[in-house]
């Protein structure tokens, strides 16, 4: 009996590791087999649940501070999840200078995109803000479209987004400036994010990139952060927004970018304004009209008719 005792903890540890490996395998299998369209809807729901919470926080916390803490919270979670990939000596040696530059650029663009977006939706409606911001992905898709079918799909998506935005650029000039800057950062997020995704290191590149981005936007987010340190629940909510919008939402984006080319990814992003309109209706009582529904139909048509090419393994 005594001779058997030392073996018991070892058996339990092996079983736990096996279960953990099995869980990771099932999760990876889901992201590798689920349709990109379904993953995009999942990502969009996570992102705009975070956006709705963030909008409520704006009454108590500076939007730039919410964006800053969102990025910090997401980077901490992602680095914790991917710690073995980041700190394992054999994996760390494979980071090249080009990889690190892409990762840093990606993180900075993402942090600035979040900051500009929050500064914008403080001033303009969520649905309209997302629709105008979509100019960035549309431009990326346009530059990479070669076939007539994909051109038609892009046209449907672009017109649909324009209809959703109301093609209304009057009023709130500062809000419009911020959303156009966010659009530029979104285009950068797509192009550089694809490079980071092809490094095939899970979410480690996203986590480290966001950590760098958080440092860059600290001068913008830190000055108005006083209320957060006096009320821990506000800090928790800001971090929760980061988990929903960045860790989950952008983590799914990285999974999709490993499987499909930038052009298809950019058109699929048209699902985000549609989802934002639905979330804004449910959570913020921003009701879509008949024209909005027509725009949503155009977007869904564009997503449906485009070619479904994939990146060869």
From TrEMBL:
The answer to whether keyword Transmembrane applies is yes
According to the entry, every stretch annotated as the EamA domain falls at 39-144, 174-305
One GO cellular component term noted in the UniProt record for this chain: membrane
Question: Which cellular compartments is it found in?
Answer: Membrane
Q: Which residues cross the membrane?
A: 38-55, 67-87, 99-120, 126-143, 150-167, 173-192, 204-222, 234-253, 265-284
Q: Which UniProt keywords apply?
A: Membrane, Transmembrane, Transmembrane helix
Q: How does it sit in the membrane?
A: Multi-pass membrane protein
Against InterPro entries, the record matches this protein to:
AA-Vitamin_Transporters (IPR050638), EamA_dom (IPR000620), EmrE-like (IPR037185)
Tell me any Pfam family this protein matches. Answer: EamA
Q: Does the keyword Transmembrane helix apply?
A: yes
Task: Spell out the protein name for this chain.
Answer: Unannotated protein
> Which organism's genome codes for this protein?
freshwater metagenome
